[in-house]
Structure formats: C-alpha cells, structure tokens
Amino acid sequence: DGGGSVRGPAFCCGLVGIKPSRGRVSYAPIGDALNGLATHGPLARTVADAAALLDVMSGYITGDPYWLPDPHPPFVQVALNAAQQGIKPLRIAVSTAIAPIGEADPACTQAVLDTANLLASLGHQVEPGLPEGIAQIVEPFQMVWRTGVRACGLPPQAMQPINQWLCDQPDTSGDFQQAVWALQMASRQIVSFFDRYDALLLPTYLYPAIQVSQWADLSPAETLERLIHWIAPCPLANTTGQPAIALPTGTFTPEGLPLGIQIMGRPADEATLIALAAQIEQARPWKQDRPRWAIA
Fold it and tell me: How many Cα neighbours within 13 Å face the side chain of 252?
C-alpha cells in the first residue's frame, strides 16, 4: 500500500484492508519502497482475520530503516476483546471531502455518514474535522512516486503507459529531496490533528469501483488527474506513516458495487483502529453480504 493499494482493493471488493504503521511490517530482505510511503498489509473478510494476519506479518528484521515494537496484546486479541466487550468512547473526526481535491460522490458520502451515526450511537464523540496540510502533499507525493517508478528496474516497454510517462518527467535529485522535505513538513501538520482526535473517518475512495477499461482512452496526464481524485483519501496515511483500515459497510450501489469507509488512526496505534473496526463489525456485520456477482 503505497497510496491505497491495500485499502482500495478492500473497498472495491467488500473486504477489510489494513495499511499498517510505517515500520510495523519489514520489507526484508529488500529495501523499503517509495521512501517509506509504502508498506505491506493484510486483506481479509473480517476484522479479526485481518488482525491475525497482521500479527503474523509484523516484526523487525535487522537493518530495517523503520521499526516498531511487537504488539502486546496481539492485534487479533484486541479485535476479539472489542467485539465481545466493546471499547471506551473515542473522539472521532469525520469528513466526506478531501480538501482541496474533491468531495465524495453521494453513495460514498452516505456510507461515511451512516457509519458516523453508528459510531455516535455506540457512544463515541463524532464531529466534523479534517487535517490541514493536505494541499501540500499532492505534488511532492507524485515526485516521490515518480522516483520510485524509475528505480524499479523495469524497462519502459514493460510498464503501463502512465508509468512510462511518469519516468519521462524531468526531475532532478534536488527536486526529489525537496519533495521528501515537503512531505515531512506536511506530515507534522497532519499528525498534530490527532492530538485532538483518536481517529478520522473518511471515504476510502471518492467514488465506487470503475470499469476496467474506463480510462483506456485517456492520456497519461489525464489518467493521473482522475486517479488523484479517485483515491484522494488514501495517500494521507502513506505520507505520515499512520495506520488506516478500510471496512465494508455491507451496502452496495444500484449496480451491485460494494461500498465502504476508511478510518485513520494515531501513529503506531493499530490497536485502537482494530478495536474500533471490530466494534463496528459487531454492530453492523457484513461477512454474509456479498455482491450479487460474487462467485465465492
């Protein structure tokens, strides 16, 4: 997940997807990806299954540039306890827009608002809120991504057209370092928001899954513009290194596409996210809710 590639598939397929904190899961034996923006994470049907997978994946390997202590208690135990016993009230911010990029479509907006109402009914303090500093990450995030694409070692002919185009952009090493610094400065501003809140409720993507070939006729620049808008809620957690979890709502568009939400937590605090997600699942189960076109 270097910009939503665990949470996005979870959203599009009606699954649970966890983007762990930076340093929770080792990249060994290779180096980390995208200067710390990317991390491995689990996909599963339930919160407890995703938590159990994350327990197995977590850990430090000698030489890792970032690391966190092992979770105690294990994340799966946190999930099971929360489902059985509930959790203490949390202060949760909620936003259906990612300023200045855009607003979620009506279906994704409703999924967030319904979840906000559910959380309030469970005793949590829910109020509108969104970190400042989001506008400052858009360009430098793309710069770090472009550098990562160039460094992947694939010949241009083996890349998708958008990645070929990214490789052709005239960036310098100085541009890259400036982008890293800009992301770090924006991260300080975004993370400070969580001094006041335990979690932030957002859309996962700003609108439901697209057709496979829907953007096939667009230029790479146009494709990138559409992509930035669609996945806008996801890169926040990649920039700051905070954990985030994508959850299905068990509801679907008229076309049968899954809907869902995303919750972003404090740095290194997957436990609170997993507990909150397990409480949501207990109150609004989704395991048996499958898209009508699902085959399993």
Answer: 15
